[in-house]
Amino acid sequence: MSAGEDTSHILSGLTSQLSDRDPDETAEWIESFDDLVDSRGTERAQYIVRSLLQRAGAQSVGVPMVTTTDYVNTIPVDQEPEFPGDEETERRYRAWMRWNAAMLVHRAQRPDIGVGGHISTYAGAATLYEVGYNHFFRGKDHPGGGDQVFFQGHASPGMYARAFMEGRLTEEDLDGFRQEKSREGHALPSYPHPRSMPEFWEFPTVSMGIGPANAIYQAQLNRYVHNRGIKDTSDQHVWAFLGDGEMDEPESRGFLQLAANEKLDNLTFVINCNLQRLDGPVRGNGKIMQELEAFFRGAGWHVIKVTWGREWDDLLDKDRDGALVDIMNSTLDGDYQTYKAESGGFVREHFFGKTPQTKEMVADMTDEQIWNLKRGGHDYHKVYAAYDAATKFKGKPTVVLAQTVKGYGLGTHFEGRNATHQMKKLTLQDLKDFRDHLRIPISDEQLEADPYRPPYYHPGADAPEIKYMMERRAALGGSVPERRTEHKQLHLPGDKAYEVARRGSGKQQAATTMAFVRLLKDLMRDKEFGARVVPIIPDEARTFGMDSFFPTAKIYNPKGQNYLSVDRDLVLAYKESPQGQILHTGINEAGSTAAFTAVGSSYATHGEPLVPIYIFYSMFGFQRTGDFFWAAADQMARGFVIGATAGRTTLTGEGLQHADGQSPILASTNPAVVTYDPAYGYEIGHIMRSGLERMYGGNHPDPNVMYYLTVYNEPIVQPAEPEELDVEGIVKGIYLLAPAKIDGPRTQLLASGVAVPWALEAQQLLADDWGVSADVWSVTSWNELRRDGLAAEEDAFLNPGSEPRKPFVAQQLEGATGPIVAVSDYMAAVPDQIRQYLPNEFATLGADGFGFSDTRAAARRFFKIDSHSIVVRALQMLARRGEVDANMAKDAFEKYRLMDVNAGTSGNAGGDS
Questions:
Q1: Which helix (DSSP H) or strand (DSSP E) does residue 626 occupy?
Q2: pLDDT tens across 389-436, in order?
Q3: Whole-structure pTM over 0.70, yes or no?
Q4: Concatenated DSSP letters for 520-565?
Q5: Does residue 542 contact residue 517 with C-beta atoms inside 8 Å?
Q6: Within its chain, how far is the Cα of 65 from the centroid?
Q7: pLDDT (tens digit, 9 = 90+) per residue, 203-224?
Q8: Cβ neighbour number for residue 381 with a 10 Å cutoff
């Protein structure tokens, strides 16, 4: 049923397709039910109705599934728990916070600053947060370990305002809002950004849709570490505060089934249903709360609606014929928004005036009383009842749908207006009206003295309200949000774990994907370290050769394996377990990245370091989920992401949308991603070891990074680690792999990943066919070489009197003569990143354009990146320099039939795709 259609109005939705053949009998049944509610209460009535529905099913009486309920509160008045706090005291300091939050944004918009901010989101959501702060959100010092709270990004001024009231921030800090460099030391980022404020924020949420996804996978991680015996998280809860407009993002809804399937009753979504998105109504012609109720209930969630405040209770109690509820059901969201932008008289005429019964219902109420009929999300009692029920409900995750007004209390210029999200400041009259509404003890003279800098308000730490507030937080375990990075020391594996990588593959062929998997298996066998590794795999484990992990490490499933596995008799049987180590996320790269983020930041959220190793189809990494990786960087997640089946030409047969020729460039845009394109297993071993030391060794100044390794599915003989290997060169990005074997005109061949064998073949062809001497360099990271080069340039710029540092790539190739040909299985921009740091003449061969289905050799010949193309390009450059005969390049071009895609020989068949 679509929200807004007649069939979605619940009073008619169940009976509209049927005729009432005996209205008198129907009335008797309804009267009997009403008597049951009056005499025994709603809880008993609920049980009777559920019993009747169950019996109806057993008797084959067709009853449709009720996906939406009336547009009223889910929790009946007689089932509401008693509010445990001092509501008036809480209201007073909530008013101070609302004032300070608005002033923080208003002051940041003064003419000489003008950095913006959002006033209206927190104004409408303050009650939702304060009920949580005062009674539910548990801090890090709580005996249960504390909750994880994902705050709605645009509401951040409210969190800063509370931190100011708690003494965690000063007025000078508030005035540093959105001025992170110009007010360094007293600066606040615009939104929840842990990287910008690493002791305060835990979770970045303002990139719409990622907060909901990450909250679900955080709740899953809590259960995962509990089931595996790493930490007791049974008393920890995950809260995610979201906007109703945000729920249009596919990521916001796309993971709901995971939370339901795994029965994550440690998770509560609170959706601030102010009925508005950034430009206008979320569903002007519909009802977003009803739509979300149906969607969440259909996904297997427990749904609690907080629609109306307590002022409506008496009216609803009088609504014996359902006329008021019918109007509530049929009124469109666009009209509800308009009502809050008008007046009590307007609501009387246009809402209650729709039927004689409802008009008479409010006849003895003044327009002011009608105007003060609150939405449920602004009522402490209703919100408390919802949160209490959510935290006590077992077996399902819960969503609280709370109806609010955007810009609540800010005055007629803000409340419910389409433009309210973009409004940054208040007029002098707005300030006075807002002050009066909140009863803030600030005089007209103080406001008039400088309307751009109205004062913040704090009554002092000794005020009874502040003492009460601090006592509540102390009882709940301290301040929220708070991020802590102290964690257990991780015992890193020793030399033995890397032996398999150093040995090579002997006479057998093995792709770098398989070389990586063999190394990973040994790392997971390490007695002290192995249990901390968390492999994360979408539905491609067999593609990556990781099905061998299933019987031993097992796939995490909190329900275990309750079916008879079809491959139970095989050595590599599919095995699920509550203690499983592998997070197998299905066909779900975005969910995998969310899982990676939760696991990779466990050192901070739980004080328990885990090492996520997310292995995925290379093309479906940074291209598909780049925004998730950006949020992971903001959350300072640590771990390894492995782009398997990499390269534009290596993944034969799969074609355009599977051929990755650009991921290193995409990865380079994320400052927290350290990218490598290794050619051999021993290179992978040293890169992994260096990464573990950096991220988890405890001595690196910047451990909050993610290592991205591209690995391939083309089988080659993996060489054993050479003696006197330049390990520093591997880690920093380039080392001399194969010096020239003959004397002659000199060239330098730089290659990475799967292209290194082509460069070695080209070295042999240049020597045998043309008498040219070539050095072959393995470039393990074009990206890191460029970053180092840029850092050297910046260092020279900022230290004009000092001797400039040479970039590492220039140091390595110092004395290496002749032109350079750089090649990889990626677009030319990847190797071209280092061109400016080398004095040599430089040429790049790249696989630019779309990929396609063909053999490796044909594809490489088409893109002119194969061994023969390298030879011809080197000869062309040498000929221009006069170091070889001018016709030599032309002869080579014809000899190797460079324009014939069927003449290519670089690459072999085989390798799973």
A1: helix 622-634
A2: 999 999 999 999 999 998 887 877 677 566 555 566 788 998 999 999
A3: yes
A4: HHHHHH-TTTGGGEEEEEETTTTTTT-GGGTTTT-EE-TT---S--
A5: no
A6: 33
A7: 999 999 999 999 999 999 999 9
A8: 18
